[in-house]
Amino acid sequence: MLVEGSIYVVNLNRLKWTGLTRRNFRALKHIREFVRKHSKAEKVILDASINEFILSRSSDNLPARIAVCVTKLDDEGKVVKASLAVQVKQEVREESK
User: What is the mean pLDDT of residues 17-29?
Assistant: First the structure.
């Protein structure tokens, strides 16, 4: 699948030192600030796939890093949309007998 835009890998390991109660919220905020800094945009829209990927684990077990695809929504590049770059499939374990 070809996607137009830039792909960034955001490191979330430093957020594991924060408290457990607001860790998911801080991860989303960190991703938004990272994309804003590197794309020089004024407004960043996060896709629901990023939220679902972070919340797929429990609040105390964040992913170490996340790949984000950033696409520009307007001509000036002031509004960008960030979505999950790599679709993650849920693996189903088969119990061995």
Answer: 87
